[in-house]
Design a protein that fits this description.
three-stranded antiparallel β-sheet; elongated; 3 strands; mainly alpha; 2 domains
Length: about 100
């Protein structure tokens, strides 16, 4: 049995998925019926494959919409850049690109 923190995280994720699909506003009995029908279909491999494809497309559309209009920032240094961060920070917002040998944000 998973630990309490793991279980809590999974419950929060499940609630988030229900909210993303727009099903949060269903009455509890309807939500339960819908979830029970999903449970019954979970043993059908073809159905699960369809669900996986549909979910993947939905997440891809969401990510595309979120990233629309964003451009990467590339910092180039005139001197050879060290792999170590120039100064410590509490929450890193950049990473070192090993191939191009520069920092990216």
């Amino acid at each position: 049995m998973p630990g309490r923190k793991v279980r809590t995280r999974r419950l929060i994720e499940a609630g988030g998925l229900i909210e993303k699909t727009g099903l949060l506003d269903l009455e509890p009995t309807r939500s339960m019926g819908a979830l029970l029908s999903l449970r019954d279909g979970a043993s059908d491999k073809d159905q699960v494959s369809k669900w996986t494809a549909l979910g993947g497309r939905s997440f891809a559309r969401e990510a595309s919409a979120r990233d629309e209009g964003k451009e990467p920032v590339v910092l180039t240094f005139r001197v050879l850049c060290q792999r170590r961060r120039p100064r410590p920070c509490a929450r890193p917002v950049s990473h070192f690109n090993k191939v191009l040998q520069h920092w990216e944000a």
